[in-house]
Amino acid sequence: ELLMEKNGDAWKVVERRGNRRKRQEYRKCGLEKPIIKAVRPVGLKQGLNKRCHDLVQSDWWHQTAASMLQSILPVWTSGRIVCYGLGSVFESRNAQWQLALALVLVERRTTPCKLEIHDPVLSLEEKVFLTEELGCLEASPVEELILEDDATTLVFMPHCPAEVYANLLSALDPSRLGRLLLLGNSLTAYQTRTSERSLEPQFCRALGCLRSEYNLDPGRTDPELERAFSDTALHVFVDEEATIAAEREAT
């Protein structure tokens, strides 16, 4: 399991194995240099296919996640999923489940869709696997994300620290948050657990623009899904650009 911790202006990647902790530092999510030398598991691609199958057969999918997909399809218009903070797909079972969900979302689209992934912990071998064998694209760093002018983009950020969400939100004009569908940790849960003084200003501003938050936490239906998707929610923001345009037309 790879964890991310903040240390001043740098991040630390922490790998837990028994009582050992391996730490290596890197700058915020813009760094391209691979951090971990990951070893590809035997049968990884077949295992991912099985996870995709098991996911759509699960109670969580039928009771919660499938309805989420149906609700966002009319507004998810860009044909892109941009994924940040996935972790090592060679070494983390959680990352493999999260990647399986992203692949299922791509597959369930009725129009062409591309999965873009960026994470500083990905090794060169993992990037080759993702791009050449799964057909993924390499995304720009989170601070450089550009949303399309006339479409809504789904951004998937599983189990990222609040600071990484703040990095994303600070890169976006608040008036354009309506172009963003954010699938990741519950922002309101972060707000509940953290004092207002400790939250980044961009984070607080985004909470003020939040129109709806749909809880997708699987609960205790399955231990592996619980670890991979606990505290997950879909966030829909107020489309200020559309509101302003409508007000101008009305006048």
Keywords:
about 250 residues; three-stranded antiparallel sheet; alpha/beta; disordered N terminus; 9 helices; globular; seven-stranded mixed sheet
Can you put this structure into words, describing what you see?
The protein has 251 residues and is an alpha/beta fold. The protein has helices at 44-57, 59-72, 93-108, 124-133, 162-170, 187-193, 201-208, 223-229, 240-250; strands at residues 2-7, 10-17, 20-26, 80-84, 114-118, 137-138, 153-157, 180-185, 210-215, 232-237. The strands form 2 sheets. Strands 6-5-4-7-8-10-9 form a 7-stranded mixed beta sheet. A 3-stranded antiparallel beta sheet has the order 1-2-3, with no helix packed on it.
Summarize, please:
The chain has helices spanning 44-57, 59-72, 93-108, 124-133, 162-170, 187-193, 201-208, 223-229, 240-250, and strands at residues 2-7, 10-17, 20-26, 80-84, 114-118, 137-138, 153-157, 180-185, 210-215, 232-237.
